[in-house]
Amino acid sequence: MAHMTNPLATVDQLYRRASSFGALPSDLQDAIFFATQSLTQAAGLLLRLPQSVTAQAGVVLARYWLEDSILAHEFSDVSAASLFLVAKLSSHPCRTRDVCNVYAYLLSPASPLFRTPPPDPGAESKADTDASNYYLSETVYSKFQARILRIEALILRALSFDTHVALPHALAITYLQALDFSFRDGESGRTRAAHHVIAYLNTALLSPQLLYLTHQPNALAVAAIYSAARDRDVAAKMPECAWWEVFDVDREELGFLVVGMRSLEGLVRKLRDDVEGFTRNGMITRKDVDVEMARRGLGMVGGNGNGTGGNQADEVDEEEAMMRSLDAKAEMMDE
């Protein structure tokens, strides 16, 4: 049964995560997590990967952020590395060129992801729809590829090469078939309930409450079924007994998961109000985090996440300087 369970986050890991990110407000942490997981889902769709692969990548990404600082690398780079790693281990591997092209588009002004659509569909400027915005030159592609491969190695090291992820989706459908729920619309209602169950499980991947890291797949599956059955357009009549106990889930765990799954929409609305530009100006970056911290009058948070500053920017500056030096030498040789 080991293939149906996941290694869960320990209390020590959750405590270290909370203490190491103490300089970063909790709402910013939630905004970063939600945006990065949403970016991973969007990239999986454009790469035509099965949802099982994309979902596993989201869990691997969340596990990695338990071990390393959320600000150690650009968020989109961690997303790309996680998706590339999990796809490589599956039967649907992706080329790094394809991954880089997809992320270049999603991060460009041409992508609708995290951008407020204009009131008039014809009001988009040429600059926003220009394909050159997401064209990758060989130099940019090589740098992007190098970052992905470096972070991929860091993820494997942080997880001790344990990338196993058991997903609750198939388990939830099996549970739903086993339960004798009565639906108002008969078979069409059962089909609608199955769609809602899968939607709740995919939504849980985006939750900053780390539901996939703190609960086993059987509990997630039961919570998704319970939530779907309570939806107005499903209106399933559930047994009056404590049916969730049959699947080894107690009432307290079920209640916590149901609240977590159903509260994400409200959380995102609150983040839109609290975090300036969230889901309106494109994918959030570390620079955006620094700007938001400055707007709030808080200390700048560096790459190590503790407010003391990191050396990531210095590394980028040194790399740029070295590339310029090499270009200058090449020009001198040509002359």
How would you explain this protein's 3D organization?
- The protein is mainly α and 335 residues long.
- Helix content is 60%, strand content 1%.
- The protein contains 15 helices and two strands.
- The chain has helices at residues 11-20, 26-46, 51-67, 75-89, 96-106, 126-129, 138-158, 169-178, 187-205, 211-214, 217-230, 251-262, 264-274, 286-295, 312-334; strands spanning 182-183, 236-237.
- A two-stranded antiparallel ribbon has the order 1-2.
- α3 packs across α4 (75-89).
- The radius of gyration is 22 Å and the shape is globular.
- The N and C termini lie far apart (68 Å).
- The model is unreliable at 306-317 (pLDDT under 50).
Main sheet: strands, sense, barrel: 2 strands, antiparallel
Q: Summarize the helix and strand pattern as letters.
A: HHHHHHHHEHHHEHHHH
Radius of gyration (CA) equals: 22 Å
Which spans of ≥5 residues are poorly predicted at pLDDT below 50?
A: 306-317
- Order of strands side by side in the largest beta sheet? 1-2
The dominant shape is globular
Structural class: mainly alpha
N-to-C CA distance: 68 Å
Number of helices: 15
- Share in helix: 55-70%
Strand content: under 5%
Number of strands: 2
Mean pLDDT: 84
